[in-house]
Design goal:
mainly alpha
């Protein structure tokens, strides 16, 4: 087995995504599925730690019955059909786009040629059902894990403040560890489905085996990408203020001229610029994360890698 080169992983992913910007479309389409790795689950645990409810509260007195009575019933049925159709199309596009990203990255890493977008898309569509099953299983397992963490956190209320904080950190650490196992297994299963063309159950079995053999290397890569996430969020928070410069300027002009409509125009322009920026950044970064994990999958599956920590420990004891 070779030593992991995380710098090489990130460099290859950056090179592929930056020089083939059409992959950003796949990144944007698949963003609804969330990124690979621990970042989504850690965000959900942060919401849990802040005390927010896991589910939306019930709306008292709300009923759908009036929408399906009398003349409104026909339009309500058509609206329901349209909503279901749009939802089904959205699921198809997001799952197929995720498969297309994996296919394009896998092909590029193997033969170092520009990915054929149409072929990658057809590959994603061909593996739609298996990838959908993987994502459904992942969501169900994450939901079960979050519910378990929520119940465990609730049971700590009787503890004193210091003990409560310590136990809460312990519970969230265990949750993150379990989330790594779930996330990495589904990542590798998706790679086996798209690149090796395996069925879902076989892919899950092989994905678990790959994680078992490269657990520390997978953990190290997850932590690196999570730190990049934190740095990116900090940069967005600091840089977002610049997108409100048009709003500030037009508000100043409105104060001097008395044209109050400029205030709304400035706010709208600033929000539009911010949304465009976030969409571009999200599409690029989602494609980057997916290709980075695909490269790691191929290195582990085809060559095998050892943990950087184990490499350091081995080098220390060999002296």
């Amino acid at each position: 087995m070779s030593e992991p080169t995380y710098r090489q992983t990130l460099a290859h992913a950056w090179k592929l995504v930056w020089h083939h910007k059409i992959l950003w479309i796949f990144g944007l389409l698949s963003v609804l599925l969330g990124q690979f790795g621990l970042d989504n689950f850690v965000g959900q645990m942060a919401l849990l730690g802040s005390g927010r409810a896991l589910f939306l509260p019930r709306v008292q007195g709300f009923s759908l019955a009036p929408f399906f009575k009398g003349a409104a019933a026909w339009w309500s049925v058509w609206l329901l059909v349209i909503v279901i159709g749009v939802l089904a199309l959205s699921i198809l596009m997001t799952v197929a786009a995720q498969g297309a990203l994996i296919a394009a990255a896998g092909n590029w890493f193997k033969i170092k040629r520009s990915p054929k977008i149409s072929k990658a898309w057809h590959t994603g569509v061909a593996h739609f059902w298996r990838l959908l099953l993987v994502n459904i299983i992942k969501r169900i397992l994450f939901l079960i894990l979050l519910l378990a963490l929520y119940r465990a956190a609730i049971s700590l209320v009787a503890f004193e403040s210091a003990a409560y904080q310590a136990m809460l950190i312990f519970i969230f650490s265990v949750g993150t560890f379990c989330a790594l196992i779930i996330s990495a297994t589904t990542i590798y299963a998706s790679g086996y489905i798209v690149i090796e063309r395996e069925d879902a159950l076989t892919a899950f079995r092989h994905g678990w085996g790959l994680l078992h053999r490269h657990f520390l290397a997978s953990l190290e890569l997850s932590i690196i990408l999570l730190l990049i996430d934190v740095a990116l969020i900090a940069l967005i928070a600091m840089g977002a203020v610049w997108f409100f410069v048009p709003s500030f300027i037009l508000t100043m002009v409105a104060g001097f001229t008395g044209w109050t409509s400029l205030v709304s125009l400035g706010i709208g322009a600033s929000m539009a610029l911010l949304l465009i920026f976030l969409a571009l950044l999200g599409s690029f970064y989602n494609a980057f994360i997916t290709t980075a994990w695909t490269y790691a999958f191929m290195k582990m599956h085809r060559e095998g890698v050892t943990s950087r920590v184990l490499h350091w420990v081995g080098a220390l004891f060999s002296r």
